[in-house]
Amino acid sequence: MRQRIVAALLVAALSGCAATPAAVSSDALTGLGAEVIHVGVAYDTAGRGDKSFNDAAGAGLDRARKELLVEATEVTAAAENDEGRAASLRQLAAGGSNPVIAVGFLYAAAIGTVAQEFPDTLFAIIDDASVTADNVVSLLFAEEQGSFLVGAAAALASRTGRVGFVGGVDVPLIRKFEAGYTAGARSVDGDIRVDVRYLSRPPDFSGFGAPDKGRAAAARLLADGADVVYAAAGGSGAGAFEAVAAVPGAWAIGVDSDQYLSAPEAVRPRVLTSMLKRVDNGVFQEIQAYIKGDRKGGVKRYDLKVDGVGYATSNPAVRKYRPQLEQARYRILSGAVRVPSS
Question: Which residues form the signal peptide (predicted)?
């Protein structure tokens, strides 16, 4: 097979035609022609287009399609419950996808069920390590470290000495964002006030997809004196951004992806920075590892050391703070600062 692929490429070169991915079989992916990799990705109900968590996962899949020549099927949970999520995972596994990647901790119960039904399929879940099985791998991120950096940026940019945090749902994962953000802000100004609002609490997970609630919460924080608001709330963050944009001099801080790049034109100038949670890297690297033969369960962690988290610099307004932020990043990397996660 390898000789046939090389010969095909030589023929294309000699004929003056460039060999395109379509001209070379996807069998070339492994270099041995042993298999075609078909990845399944299950998004939560917000799906692609949330300009945050799901889109970051989608970006990693898009990169794998382009660079690794994998095939893929993407689905969005049809219902906001364990049954709906299990149905999505089951659909992908039964259709031949392997690996199957679940986007978000809300898939934990569904993964636990469906992984037993398909023992020969590798399942990966982002943001949860509660399921221990030979065919389940957990992809975890040091959200508190990235949030520490944007918390420092918030304190540097604040003129009132008061900043805000909007959490989508009051769960341990989002508390990691809050803890890091608060610690980062206080590393700059020990007297700064950090006001916190959550949009919902379990079993109500609507806080991740309710822009109206995000708008109202951010407006309340701003009315109380905060002039920088960090929204770790999924799709609800769009509403928080709108509230910030309506207040002259106020700043918003995005999450997961560089939301300065995706924000509406009227909002974009007010997005100071974003906490980058490199879910795209996690998804891409997990697919790459699978191709290389790493098909074991376990836990993989993405922190500052492996570019798993960080902060965005697209808005020129944040660049004047980079020396202080880079110093904070180095102190975390060196171990001089241990960022709290709760």
Answer: 1-18
Pairing of strands 162-169, 309-311: unpaired
Domains 37-141+280-306 and 143-277+312-334 share a fold: yes
Q: How far is CA 164 from CA 184, 235, 240, 321, in A?
A: 13, 18, 11, 19
- Give the single-character DSSP code of 98: B
pTM of the predicted model as reported, rounded to 2 decimal places: 0.84
Per residue in 161-195, pLDDT tens? Answer: 999 999 999 999 999 999 999 999 999 999 999 99
b/e code 317-337 from CB counts within 10 Å (16+ = b):
bbeebeebbeebbeebeeeeb
Q: Is the pLDDT of residue 28 over 90?
A: no
CA 282 to CA 103: how far, in whole Å? 11
CA dist., res. 114 & res. 13, Å (int) = 47
Task: Estimate the share of the chain in helix, then strand, then coil, as percent rounded to the nearest 5.
Answer: 50, 20, 30
Parallel, antiparallel or unpaired: strands 100-102 and 123-126: parallel
- Decide: 99 and 286 in contact? Cβ < 8 Å: yes
What fold, for 143-277+312-334?
Rossmann fold (3.40.50)
CA distance 157 to 250: 9
Give me the residue spans of the domains in the chain.
Answer: 37-141+280-306, 143-277+312-334
The verdict on domain 37-141+280-306 having CATH code 3.40.50.2300 is: yes
Chain-centroid distance of CA 151 in Å reads 18
**pLDDT at residue 23, rounded to an integer:** 33
The total number of residues written for the chain in this structure:
342
Joined together, the tokens standing for residue 16 give: 């003056």
Task: Quickly count: other Cβ atoms within 10 Å of residue 40's Cβ.
Answer: 26
Residue 204 has pLDDT above 50, yes or no: yes
Query: Do residues 177 and 255 touch, judged by C-beta distance below 8 A?
Result: yes
